[in-house]
Protein backbone atom coordinates (compact mmCIF):
# COMPACT_ATOMS: atom_id res chain seq x y z
CA UNK A 1 0.00 0.00 0.00
CA UNK A 2 2.86 2.34 0.91
CA UNK A 3 4.63 1.55 -2.37
CA UNK A 4 1.41 2.18 -4.32
CA UNK A 5 0.92 5.58 -2.64
CA UNK A 6 4.55 6.45 -3.38
CA UNK A 7 4.10 5.59 -7.08
CA UNK A 8 0.92 7.70 -7.17
CA UNK A 9 2.73 10.64 -5.58
CA UNK A 10 5.56 10.42 -8.13
CA UNK A 11 3.08 10.30 -11.03
CA UNK A 12 1.11 13.24 -9.60
CA UNK A 13 4.33 15.25 -9.10
CA UNK A 14 5.39 14.54 -12.67
CA UNK A 15 2.00 15.66 -13.97
CA UNK A 16 2.24 18.90 -11.99
CA UNK A 17 5.74 19.56 -13.41
CA UNK A 18 4.50 19.00 -16.96
CA UNK A 19 1.50 21.25 -16.29
CA UNK A 20 3.72 23.95 -14.78
CA UNK A 21 6.08 23.76 -17.77
CA UNK A 22 3.16 23.96 -20.16
CA UNK A 23 1.79 26.93 -18.19
CA UNK A 24 5.16 28.71 -18.29
CA UNK A 25 5.54 28.08 -22.02
CA UNK A 26 2.00 29.25 -22.61
CA UNK A 27 2.67 32.43 -20.63
CA UNK A 28 5.87 33.09 -22.54
CA UNK A 29 4.10 32.50 -25.83
CA UNK A 30 1.29 34.89 -24.89
CA UNK A 31 3.79 37.58 -23.86
CA UNK A 32 5.68 37.13 -27.12
CA UNK A 33 2.43 37.39 -29.06
CA UNK A 34 1.59 40.66 -27.31
CA UNK A 35 5.10 42.00 -27.87
CA UNK A 36 4.76 41.27 -31.58
CA UNK A 37 1.22 42.63 -31.77
CA UNK A 38 0.80 45.29 -34.46
CA UNK A 39 -1.73 47.82 -33.20
CA UNK A 40 -1.61 49.94 -36.37
CA UNK A 41 -4.88 48.53 -37.85
CA UNK A 42 -6.74 49.29 -34.61
CA UNK A 43 -5.65 52.83 -33.68
CA UNK A 44 -4.00 55.94 -35.07
CA UNK A 45 -2.05 56.34 -31.86
CA UNK A 46 1.64 55.46 -31.78
CA UNK A 47 4.23 54.78 -29.11
CA UNK A 48 7.22 57.13 -28.98
CA UNK A 49 10.30 56.00 -27.05
CA UNK A 50 12.08 59.14 -25.84
CA UNK A 51 15.84 58.45 -25.57
CA UNK A 52 18.45 60.62 -23.86
CA UNK A 53 21.99 60.45 -22.49
CA UNK A 54 22.31 59.90 -18.75
CA UNK A 55 24.52 61.43 -16.07
CA UNK A 56 27.68 59.47 -16.86
CA UNK A 57 27.71 60.89 -20.38
CA UNK A 58 27.71 57.39 -21.88
CA UNK A 59 24.66 55.64 -20.35
CA UNK A 60 21.37 55.78 -22.21
CA UNK A 61 17.93 56.23 -20.69
CA UNK A 62 14.49 56.05 -22.25
CA UNK A 63 10.79 56.09 -21.48
CA UNK A 64 7.64 55.73 -23.56
CA UNK A 65 4.61 57.88 -24.22
CA UNK A 66 1.56 57.74 -26.46
CA UNK A 67 1.28 60.18 -29.34
CA UNK A 68 -2.15 60.80 -30.87
CA UNK A 69 -1.08 60.22 -34.49
CA UNK A 70 1.95 59.28 -36.61
CA UNK A 71 4.59 61.97 -37.09
CA UNK A 72 7.29 62.54 -39.70
CA UNK A 73 9.47 65.14 -38.00
CA UNK A 74 10.82 65.60 -34.49
CA UNK A 75 9.43 69.15 -34.45
CA UNK A 76 5.90 67.68 -34.37
CA UNK A 77 6.55 66.00 -31.03
CA UNK A 78 5.95 67.59 -27.62
CA UNK A 79 8.73 68.26 -25.14
CA UNK A 80 8.77 66.03 -22.08
CA UNK A 81 10.51 65.89 -18.74
CA UNK A 82 12.16 63.40 -16.39
CA UNK A 83 13.58 63.17 -12.88
CA UNK A 84 17.16 64.36 -13.25
CA UNK A 85 17.99 63.53 -9.64
CA UNK A 86 17.60 59.84 -10.48
CA UNK A 87 20.06 60.04 -13.37
CA UNK A 88 22.69 62.20 -11.68
CA UNK A 89 21.77 65.25 -13.75
CA UNK A 90 19.89 67.47 -11.29
CA UNK A 91 19.56 68.02 -7.51
CA UNK A 92 16.60 66.52 -5.68
CA UNK A 93 15.12 69.88 -4.73
CA UNK A 94 14.98 70.97 -8.38
CA UNK A 95 15.01 67.72 -10.32
CA UNK A 96 13.00 68.46 -13.45
CA UNK A 97 14.94 68.18 -16.72
CA UNK A 98 13.26 68.93 -20.05
CA UNK A 99 13.63 66.69 -23.11
CA UNK A 100 13.69 68.33 -26.54
CA UNK A 101 12.97 65.87 -29.40
CA UNK A 102 15.67 66.21 -32.08
CA UNK A 103 15.60 63.16 -34.38
CA UNK A 104 13.20 60.27 -34.99
CA UNK A 105 13.77 56.70 -36.18
CA UNK A 106 11.44 53.77 -36.81
CA UNK A 107 11.10 51.43 -33.85
CA UNK A 108 12.28 47.91 -34.84
CA UNK A 109 11.04 46.42 -31.55
CA UNK A 110 7.43 47.60 -31.72
CA UNK A 111 7.12 47.95 -35.49
CA UNK A 112 4.24 49.73 -37.17
CA UNK A 113 4.29 53.52 -36.99
CA UNK A 114 5.98 53.51 -33.59
CA UNK A 115 9.16 55.55 -33.28
CA UNK A 116 12.38 56.09 -31.37
CA UNK A 117 13.10 59.72 -30.49
CA UNK A 118 16.62 61.01 -29.86
CA UNK A 119 16.41 63.91 -27.41
CA UNK A 120 18.77 66.34 -25.73
CA UNK A 121 18.23 67.72 -22.24
CA UNK A 122 17.72 71.25 -20.89
CA UNK A 123 16.90 73.00 -17.64
CA UNK A 124 13.38 74.45 -17.28
CA UNK A 125 14.97 77.83 -18.15
CA UNK A 126 16.07 76.45 -21.51
CA UNK A 127 19.79 76.09 -20.77
CA UNK A 128 21.51 72.87 -21.94
CA UNK A 129 22.56 70.70 -19.00
CA UNK A 130 26.28 69.75 -18.73
CA UNK A 131 25.85 66.32 -20.33
CA UNK A 132 24.03 67.82 -23.33
CA UNK A 133 26.87 67.86 -25.85
CA UNK A 134 24.53 67.95 -28.81
CA UNK A 135 23.68 71.61 -28.26
CA UNK A 136 27.23 72.90 -28.89
CA UNK A 137 27.74 70.50 -31.79
CA UNK A 138 24.54 71.79 -33.43
CA UNK A 139 25.85 75.36 -33.11
CA UNK A 140 29.11 74.38 -34.81
CA UNK A 141 27.35 72.55 -37.64
CA UNK A 142 24.99 75.48 -38.24
CA UNK A 143 27.89 77.93 -38.76
CA UNK A 144 27.80 79.15 -42.40
CA UNK A 145 31.46 78.18 -42.97
CA UNK A 146 30.80 74.64 -41.77
CA UNK A 147 27.55 74.36 -43.69
CA UNK A 148 29.31 75.35 -46.92
CA UNK A 149 31.95 72.64 -46.39
CA UNK A 150 29.33 69.86 -46.04
CA UNK A 151 31.36 67.80 -43.51
CA UNK A 152 31.04 64.03 -43.92
CA UNK A 153 31.66 61.55 -41.12
CA UNK A 154 32.05 57.80 -41.19
CA UNK A 155 32.28 56.41 -37.65
CA UNK A 156 33.60 52.93 -36.80
CA UNK A 157 32.07 51.90 -33.46
CA UNK A 158 33.89 49.03 -31.75
CA UNK A 159 32.32 47.24 -28.78
CA UNK A 160 32.87 44.18 -26.60
CA UNK A 161 30.28 41.57 -25.62
CA UNK A 162 30.59 40.28 -22.05
CA UNK A 163 29.18 37.23 -20.31
CA UNK A 164 26.67 38.31 -17.64
CA UNK A 165 27.59 38.16 -13.95
CA UNK A 166 31.30 37.53 -14.61
CA UNK A 167 32.07 40.54 -16.89
CA UNK A 168 34.33 38.41 -19.08
CA UNK A 169 34.31 38.50 -22.89
CA UNK A 170 31.82 36.31 -24.70
CA UNK A 171 33.39 33.04 -25.86
CA UNK A 172 36.26 33.21 -23.38
CA UNK A 173 36.67 30.54 -20.70
CA UNK A 174 35.66 32.12 -17.39
CA UNK A 175 38.81 33.28 -15.65
CA UNK A 176 40.91 32.07 -18.57
CA UNK A 177 42.05 33.20 -21.98
CA UNK A 178 41.52 32.02 -25.56
CA UNK A 179 44.30 31.54 -28.08
CA UNK A 180 46.29 34.63 -29.10
CA UNK A 181 44.90 37.22 -31.49
CA UNK A 182 45.09 36.49 -35.18
CA UNK A 183 42.29 34.17 -36.32
CA UNK A 184 39.39 36.20 -34.89
CA UNK A 185 39.38 39.34 -37.07
CA UNK A 186 36.56 38.85 -39.62
CA UNK A 187 36.74 35.15 -38.76
CA UNK A 188 34.08 32.45 -39.07
CA UNK A 189 33.51 29.36 -36.97
CA UNK A 190 32.39 28.46 -33.47
CA UNK A 191 35.95 28.75 -32.18
CA UNK A 192 36.59 32.17 -33.73
CA UNK A 193 33.34 34.13 -33.88
CA UNK A 194 31.40 34.85 -30.68
CA UNK A 195 28.22 36.93 -30.87
CA UNK A 196 27.53 36.99 -34.60
CA UNK A 197 23.78 36.63 -33.98
CA UNK A 198 23.82 39.85 -31.94
CA UNK A 199 25.83 41.69 -34.59
CA UNK A 200 23.49 40.57 -37.38
CA UNK A 201 20.34 41.35 -35.38
CA UNK A 202 21.72 44.81 -34.68
CA UNK A 203 22.61 45.33 -38.35
CA UNK A 204 19.05 44.58 -39.47
CA UNK A 205 17.51 46.63 -36.66
CA UNK A 206 19.58 49.65 -37.73
CA UNK A 207 18.53 49.29 -41.36
CA UNK A 208 14.88 49.03 -40.32
CA UNK A 209 15.18 52.08 -38.07
CA UNK A 210 16.64 54.21 -40.86
CA UNK A 211 20.12 54.48 -39.37
CA UNK A 212 22.80 54.99 -42.01
CA UNK A 213 24.71 51.84 -41.05
CA UNK A 214 27.20 50.83 -43.72
CA UNK A 215 28.73 47.60 -42.44
CA UNK A 216 29.85 45.36 -39.59
CA UNK A 217 32.65 42.90 -38.85
CA UNK A 218 34.27 40.82 -36.14
CA UNK A 219 37.25 42.54 -34.52
CA UNK A 220 40.82 41.50 -33.63
CA UNK A 221 40.03 40.55 -30.04
CA UNK A 222 37.59 37.62 -29.69
CA UNK A 223 34.19 38.74 -28.43
CA UNK A 224 34.73 42.19 -29.92
CA UNK A 225 32.74 43.58 -32.86
CA UNK A 226 32.44 46.73 -34.92
CA UNK A 227 29.76 48.47 -36.92
CA UNK A 228 30.17 51.48 -39.19
CA UNK A 229 27.78 54.39 -39.63
CA UNK A 230 28.08 56.88 -42.47
CA UNK A 231 28.82 58.81 -44.45
CA UNK A 232 26.62 61.17 -42.47
CA UNK A 233 26.51 64.95 -42.72
CA UNK A 234 27.06 67.15 -39.68
CA UNK A 235 24.92 66.62 -36.59
CA UNK A 236 23.25 63.60 -38.19
CA UNK A 237 26.38 61.52 -37.48
CA UNK A 238 25.97 61.88 -33.72
CA UNK A 239 22.21 61.21 -33.81
CA UNK A 240 22.70 58.00 -35.80
CA UNK A 241 25.52 56.66 -33.60
CA UNK A 242 23.57 57.27 -30.39
CA UNK A 243 20.47 55.59 -31.79
CA UNK A 244 22.57 52.65 -33.03
CA UNK A 245 24.08 52.31 -29.54
CA UNK A 246 20.59 52.31 -28.03
CA UNK A 247 19.47 49.52 -30.36
CA UNK A 248 22.57 47.52 -29.43
CA UNK A 249 21.84 47.98 -25.72
CA UNK A 250 18.28 46.70 -26.22
CA UNK A 251 19.37 43.71 -28.32
CA UNK A 252 22.06 42.62 -25.86
CA UNK A 253 19.50 43.06 -23.09
CA UNK A 254 17.18 40.59 -24.83
CA UNK A 255 20.07 38.21 -25.53
CA UNK A 256 21.22 38.24 -21.91
CA UNK A 257 24.64 39.62 -22.84
CA UNK A 258 26.37 42.71 -21.44
CA UNK A 259 27.51 45.47 -23.81
CA UNK A 260 30.82 47.16 -22.97
CA UNK A 261 32.23 50.33 -24.53
CA UNK A 262 35.33 50.25 -22.33
CA UNK A 263 38.32 51.33 -24.46
CA UNK A 264 40.51 48.59 -22.92
CA UNK A 265 38.28 45.87 -21.47
CA UNK A 266 41.11 43.34 -21.06
CA UNK A 267 44.62 44.35 -20.06
CA UNK A 268 47.62 42.72 -21.67
CA UNK A 269 48.31 41.70 -25.25
CA UNK A 270 44.75 42.33 -26.44
CA UNK A 271 43.40 45.06 -28.67
CA UNK A 272 41.39 47.86 -27.14
CA UNK A 273 38.14 49.26 -28.51
CA UNK A 274 38.08 52.53 -30.42
CA UNK A 275 35.71 54.64 -32.43
CA UNK A 276 37.77 55.67 -35.46
CA UNK A 277 36.25 58.68 -37.16
CA UNK A 278 36.65 59.19 -40.90
CA UNK A 279 36.21 62.81 -41.89
CA UNK A 280 36.22 65.01 -44.96
CA UNK A 281 35.04 68.42 -46.09
CA UNK A 282 33.98 69.56 -49.54
CA UNK A 283 37.39 71.19 -50.03
CA UNK A 284 39.12 67.91 -49.17
CA UNK A 285 37.00 65.98 -51.64
CA UNK A 286 37.67 68.38 -54.53
CA UNK A 287 40.79 68.77 -56.68
CA UNK A 288 43.75 69.90 -54.59
CA UNK A 289 42.10 68.46 -51.51
CA UNK A 290 45.26 66.76 -50.25
CA UNK A 291 46.77 70.16 -49.40
CA UNK A 292 43.59 71.00 -47.46
CA UNK A 293 43.90 67.68 -45.63
CA UNK A 294 47.50 68.49 -44.65
CA UNK A 295 46.40 71.91 -43.37
CA UNK A 296 43.66 70.20 -41.35
CA UNK A 297 46.20 67.76 -39.93
CA UNK A 298 48.41 70.69 -38.89
CA UNK A 299 45.48 72.22 -36.99
CA UNK A 300 44.70 68.87 -35.38
CA UNK A 301 48.31 68.55 -34.25
CA UNK A 302 48.16 71.97 -32.61
CA UNK A 303 45.05 71.01 -30.61
CA UNK A 304 46.10 67.43 -29.88
CA UNK A 305 45.77 67.71 -26.09
CA UNK A 306 42.36 69.33 -26.34
CA UNK A 307 41.10 66.56 -28.61
CA UNK A 308 42.56 63.80 -26.45
CA UNK A 309 40.85 65.18 -23.35
CA UNK A 310 37.50 65.00 -25.18
CA UNK A 311 37.95 61.64 -26.90
CA UNK A 312 36.76 59.28 -24.18
CA UNK A 313 37.43 58.34 -20.57
CA UNK A 314 40.15 55.74 -19.98
CA UNK A 315 41.65 56.26 -23.42
CA UNK A 316 45.15 56.36 -21.93
CA UNK A 317 44.86 52.60 -21.33
CA UNK A 318 44.24 52.10 -25.05
CA UNK A 319 46.53 54.65 -26.77
CA UNK A 320 49.85 53.07 -25.82
CA UNK A 321 51.58 52.94 -29.19
CA UNK A 322 50.76 49.22 -29.44
CA UNK A 323 47.89 47.21 -30.91
CA UNK A 324 47.32 49.54 -33.88
CA UNK A 325 47.33 52.74 -31.81
CA UNK A 326 49.53 55.80 -31.50
CA UNK A 327 50.95 57.07 -28.21
CA UNK A 328 48.49 59.31 -26.39
CA UNK A 329 51.23 61.89 -25.71
CA UNK A 330 52.57 62.28 -29.24
CA UNK A 331 50.68 63.40 -32.32
CA UNK A 332 51.58 61.67 -35.57
CA UNK A 333 50.17 61.09 -39.02
CA UNK A 334 51.03 58.90 -41.94
CA UNK A 335 49.79 57.31 -45.14
CA UNK A 336 48.26 53.84 -44.61
CA UNK A 337 49.79 53.74 -41.10
CA UNK A 338 47.39 52.39 -38.47
CA UNK A 339 49.89 53.20 -35.74
CA UNK A 340 49.41 56.95 -36.21
CA UNK A 341 47.03 59.46 -34.65
CA UNK A 342 45.74 60.42 -38.10
CA UNK A 343 45.78 57.99 -41.02
CA UNK A 344 45.51 59.03 -44.65
CA UNK A 345 44.59 56.33 -47.17
CA UNK A 346 46.73 55.38 -50.15
CA UNK A 347 43.89 56.28 -52.50
CA UNK A 348 43.66 59.76 -51.00
CA UNK A 349 47.38 60.32 -51.50
CA UNK A 350 47.26 58.92 -55.04
CA UNK A 351 44.21 60.91 -56.15
CA UNK A 352 45.24 64.08 -54.33
CA UNK A 353 41.89 64.35 -52.56
CA UNK A 354 39.71 62.37 -50.16
CA UNK A 355 39.46 62.06 -46.40
CA UNK A 356 41.42 61.51 -43.19
CA UNK A 357 40.85 59.02 -40.37
CA UNK A 358 41.18 60.16 -36.76
CA UNK A 359 42.17 56.98 -34.90
CA UNK A 360 42.33 58.57 -31.45
CA UNK A 361 38.67 58.47 -30.26
CA UNK A 362 37.84 55.72 -27.76
CA UNK A 363 34.84 53.42 -28.06
CA UNK A 364 33.06 55.37 -25.29
CA UNK A 365 33.51 58.77 -26.94
CA UNK A 366 30.57 61.13 -27.40
CA UNK A 367 30.03 61.41 -31.17
CA UNK A 368 28.59 64.90 -30.77
CA UNK A 369 31.83 66.04 -29.13
CA UNK A 370 34.18 64.32 -31.58
CA UNK A 371 32.41 65.37 -34.79
CA UNK A 372 31.87 68.91 -33.55
CA UNK A 373 35.48 69.27 -32.46
CA UNK A 374 36.80 67.96 -35.79
CA UNK A 375 34.71 70.49 -37.72
CA UNK A 376 35.64 73.32 -35.38
CA UNK A 377 39.39 72.61 -35.48
CA UNK A 378 39.65 72.11 -39.23
CA UNK A 379 37.16 74.69 -40.50
CA UNK A 380 36.60 77.42 -37.91
CA UNK A 381 39.73 77.47 -35.77
CA UNK A 382 42.74 79.55 -36.79
CA UNK A 383 46.04 78.74 -35.05
CA UNK A 384 47.90 81.49 -33.20
CA UNK A 385 51.28 82.60 -34.50
CA UNK A 386 53.02 81.03 -31.50
CA UNK A 387 51.20 77.74 -32.01
CA UNK A 388 52.27 77.52 -35.64
CA UNK A 389 55.87 78.24 -34.72
CA UNK A 390 55.78 75.52 -32.05
CA UNK A 391 54.23 73.06 -34.47
CA UNK A 392 57.06 73.60 -36.92
CA UNK A 393 59.23 71.38 -34.73
CA UNK A 394 56.58 68.67 -34.62
CA UNK A 395 55.90 68.13 -38.29
CA UNK A 396 55.56 64.73 -39.89
CA UNK A 397 58.64 62.67 -38.81
CA UNK A 398 59.27 61.56 -42.40
CA UNK A 399 59.64 65.19 -43.45
CA UNK A 400 61.71 66.11 -40.38
CA UNK A 401 64.42 63.75 -41.57
CA UNK A 402 64.73 65.74 -44.83
CA UNK A 403 65.50 69.06 -43.13
CA UNK A 404 68.78 70.56 -44.27
CA UNK A 405 71.59 71.08 -41.77
CA UNK A 406 71.29 74.92 -41.76
CA UNK A 407 67.57 74.65 -41.06
CA UNK A 408 68.30 72.37 -38.10
CA UNK A 409 71.10 74.55 -36.75
CA UNK A 410 69.17 77.84 -36.94
CA UNK A 411 65.75 77.41 -35.26
CA UNK A 412 64.45 80.67 -36.69
CA UNK A 413 60.68 81.04 -36.70
CA UNK A 414 58.54 83.33 -38.74
CA UNK A 415 54.87 83.94 -37.82
CA UNK A 416 53.49 83.01 -41.24
CA UNK A 417 55.07 79.62 -41.68
CA UNK A 418 57.36 76.89 -40.42
CA UNK A 419 61.04 76.94 -39.53
CA UNK A 420 62.27 76.62 -43.11
CA UNK A 421 59.96 79.38 -44.30
CA UNK A 422 61.18 81.67 -41.54
CA UNK A 423 64.79 80.83 -42.33
CA UNK A 424 64.20 81.77 -45.96
CA UNK A 425 62.24 84.95 -45.45
CA UNK A 426 64.25 86.53 -42.62
CA UNK A 427 67.63 85.74 -44.17
CA UNK A 428 66.51 86.77 -47.64
CA UNK A 429 64.95 90.03 -46.48
CA UNK A 430 68.07 91.10 -44.59
CA UNK A 431 70.43 90.15 -47.40
CA UNK A 432 68.09 91.49 -50.06
CA UNK A 433 67.63 94.92 -48.48
CA UNK A 434 71.36 95.35 -47.79
CA UNK A 435 72.27 94.13 -51.26
CA UNK A 436 69.66 96.34 -52.91
CA UNK A 437 71.00 99.45 -51.15
CA UNK A 438 74.62 98.66 -52.05
CA UNK A 439 73.55 97.94 -55.61
CA UNK A 440 72.00 101.39 -55.90
CA UNK A 441 75.22 102.86 -54.48
CA UNK A 442 77.18 100.89 -57.05
CA UNK A 443 75.03 102.20 -59.90
CA UNK A 444 75.57 105.74 -58.64
CA UNK A 445 79.32 105.08 -58.63
CA UNK A 446 79.08 103.74 -62.18
CA UNK A 447 77.47 107.00 -63.26
CA UNK A 448 80.21 108.97 -61.47
CA UNK A 449 82.97 106.59 -62.70
CA UNK A 450 84.26 106.22 -59.11
CA UNK A 451 86.25 102.99 -59.55
CA UNK A 452 87.40 102.27 -55.91
CA UNK A 453 83.93 102.80 -54.44
CA UNK A 454 82.46 100.94 -57.39
CA UNK A 455 84.45 97.79 -56.63
CA UNK A 456 83.52 97.89 -52.91
CA UNK A 457 79.84 98.31 -53.74
CA UNK A 458 80.02 95.51 -56.28
CA UNK A 459 81.66 93.13 -53.79
CA UNK A 460 79.08 93.95 -51.08
CA UNK A 461 76.19 93.62 -53.50
CA UNK A 462 77.42 90.35 -54.93
CA UNK A 463 78.01 88.85 -51.45
CA UNK A 464 74.56 89.73 -50.16
CA UNK A 465 72.93 88.54 -53.35
CA UNK A 466 74.72 85.19 -53.05
CA UNK A 467 73.58 84.91 -49.41
CA UNK A 468 70.02 85.56 -50.55
CA UNK A 469 70.36 82.89 -53.20
CA UNK A 470 71.88 80.46 -50.66
CA UNK A 471 69.05 81.03 -48.19
CA UNK A 472 66.44 80.39 -50.86
CA UNK A 473 68.22 77.26 -52.05
CA UNK A 474 68.67 75.73 -48.61
CA UNK A 475 65.08 76.29 -47.53
CA UNK A 476 63.23 75.89 -50.82
CA UNK A 477 62.64 72.14 -50.62
CA UNK A 478 61.37 72.41 -47.06
CA UNK A 479 58.54 74.82 -47.77
CA UNK A 480 55.29 72.90 -48.05
CA UNK A 481 52.87 75.70 -47.20
CA UNK A 482 54.28 78.53 -49.29
CA UNK A 483 51.59 78.83 -51.93
CA UNK A 484 48.60 77.88 -49.75
CA UNK A 485 48.80 80.94 -47.51
CA UNK A 486 48.09 84.47 -48.79
CA UNK A 487 50.58 86.07 -46.38
CA UNK A 488 53.37 83.82 -47.60
CA UNK A 489 52.48 84.43 -51.22
CA UNK A 490 52.78 88.19 -50.66
CA UNK A 491 56.11 87.95 -48.87
CA UNK A 492 57.63 85.55 -51.35
CA UNK A 493 56.49 87.73 -54.26
CA UNK A 494 58.24 90.70 -52.64
CA UNK A 495 61.37 88.59 -52.21
CA UNK A 496 61.35 87.58 -55.86
CA UNK A 497 61.00 91.21 -56.96
CA UNK A 498 63.75 92.38 -54.59
CA UNK A 499 66.10 89.56 -55.58
CA UNK A 500 65.45 90.09 -59.28
CA UNK A 501 66.02 93.83 -59.05
CA UNK A 502 69.17 93.27 -57.03
CA UNK A 503 70.49 90.82 -59.62
CA UNK A 504 69.86 93.40 -62.34
CA UNK A 505 71.68 96.07 -60.33
CA UNK A 506 74.61 93.73 -59.69
CA UNK A 507 74.88 93.04 -63.41
CA UNK A 508 74.91 96.78 -64.08
CA UNK A 509 77.72 97.24 -61.55
CA UNK A 510 79.82 94.56 -63.22
CA UNK A 511 79.20 96.18 -66.58
CA UNK A 512 80.40 99.44 -65.04
CA UNK A 513 83.56 97.79 -63.68
CA UNK A 514 84.42 96.47 -67.13
CA UNK A 515 83.93 99.91 -68.64
CA UNK A 516 86.15 101.52 -65.97
CA UNK A 517 88.85 98.89 -66.53
CA UNK A 518 88.81 99.34 -70.30
CA UNK A 519 88.81 103.09 -69.93
UniProtKB/TrEMBL annotation:
Subcellular location field: Plastid, Chloroplast
Enzyme class, spelled out: ligase
EC number: 6.3.1.2
Family: Belongs to the glutamine synthetase family.
Domain GS beta-grasp as annotated: residue spans: 46-126
Subunit relationships: Homooctamer.
Organism name: Anisodus acutangulus
Classification of source organism: Eukaryota, Viridiplantae, Streptophyta, Embryophyta, Tracheophyta
Protein name: Glutamine synthetase
Keywords associated with the record: ATP-binding, Chloroplast, Ligase, Membrane, Nucleotide-binding, Plastid, Transit peptide, Transmembrane, Transmembrane helix
GO cellular component, one term: chloroplast
PROSITE patterns per record: GLNA_1, GLNA_ATP, GS_BETA_GRASP, GS_CATALYTIC
GS catalytic domain: residues covered: 133-519
InterPro entries: AWPM-19, Gln_synt_N, Gln_synt_N_sf, Gln_synth/guanido_kin_cat_dom, Gln_synth_cat_dom, Gln_synth_gly_rich_site, Gln_synth_N_conserv_site, Glutamine_Synthetase
Gene Ontology annotations of biological process type: glutamine biosynthetic process
Transmembrane segments: 409-437, 457-474, 494-513
PANTHER family recorded: GLUTAMINE SYNTHETASE, GLUTAMINE SYNTHETASE, CHLOROPLASTIC_MITOCHONDRIAL
An MF annotation (GO) of this entry: glutamine synthetase activity
Primary localization class, coarse: plastid
Catalysed reaction, written as an equation: L-glutamate + NH4(+) + ATP = L-glutamine + ADP + phosphate + H(+)
